[in-house]
Prior knowledge:
It comes from Humidesulfovibrio mexicanus. The chain is an all-alpha fold.
Amino acid sequence: MTDVTEAVFAILLFPGGLFVLTLGLLLKGVDRKVVARLQRRVGPPLYQPALDIIKLLTKETLIPDTANELAFRLAPVLGLTGMLVTAALMPIGGVWNGVSGLGDLLVLLYLLPIPAMGLMLAGGSSSSPYGSLGFSREMCMMFAYEMPLIASFLAVAVRVGGASGSLLSLPAIMDYQFQHGPLLFDPVMLPAALALILFIPGTMGHGLFDIPEAEPEVIEGPLLEYSGPLLAVFHLMSAVKLVVVLELGVALLFPNPLVTTGGGGVLVNLLWHIMKCLVLLMVSVTCFRAATGRLRLDQGFSFFVKYTSPLALVSLGLAFLLR
C-alpha cells in the first residue's frame, strides 16, 4: 500500500472516517445513558446520537440574513475535516501504527485546536450576540486548556527520550511503553497523567467546563443560529473529537496491546483499545459531567492555569532531573 493510498484509507475508513464516526456516536450514546442512570433517569437509547444526526439531516438549513454565509457554512466542515485527519494519525497499539511519518506530537498540537477554531468561526460569522460571547469564551478556554496539554506533551517527550533528548514521535512513544511499561504507572508521569485526564473534559466542554455553549447563559453560544445538516456536521465533529482525545490519552498513557502474537490479535487488540477508551470516557467525562455543575469563565481559566498546568510542569521537571 503506497503512502497516498494508506493516508486516504486512514482518513476515509480506518482509523478515521467511518470507524471513528461510528465509535464516536456510540461513545456519545454510552455517555448520555450512564449520566442518566447516575442521575436516576432512564435516559435515551444508545443509538440516540445517530437518530439525532439523521433527524438533523432531514431538516432545512437556515442562515441569518446578516451572517457571513461563506464562513457560516465553512466552520463546521473545517472542524470535522480537521478531526478526521487527526483521527487518521492516531496509532492503535497492536492494530495501527499511524500514517507513516506524520505521527508527531507537534502535528497534533496544530490539529487539535481546529474544532475550537471552527466554533469560533461559527460564532463570529453568525452575527448573533450570543455567538460572539461563545466565540470569546471558547478562545479563552482554548488558551487555558492548551497550556497543560503542551506541558504534558513535553513531559512525555522528555521522559521517553531520556538522556538522548526529547522524543516527539507518537509511535516511538508507544514503542517505549511496549518495552518499559505504560507511562500511566510511572510515578514521574502521574501528575501529567492527571493533567491529561482533566484536559479531556476541558476541551470537550463538559461538566465544569461547559462554558462556551452554556445553555442558561449564552443559549448554545456559537451554535445558536445553526440548524439542519450544518448542525449535524458540528455534532459529528464533537463525536470524532471525543474519540480523538480519548485515543490520545490511551496512546500517551496506556497503549499496550492485549495480544502481541497470533492471527486474531488485531481484532482482540481493537476491542481492547475500545474498552480502554470507554474506561477513560467514564473517568474523565461521564462521571465528571454527572457530578458537577459549571464554572464561570474566570474560574475555568484559573483552574487550568493554577492547578492543571502545574501538575504537568511537575512531571516535566522530574523528567528533566531523572533523564
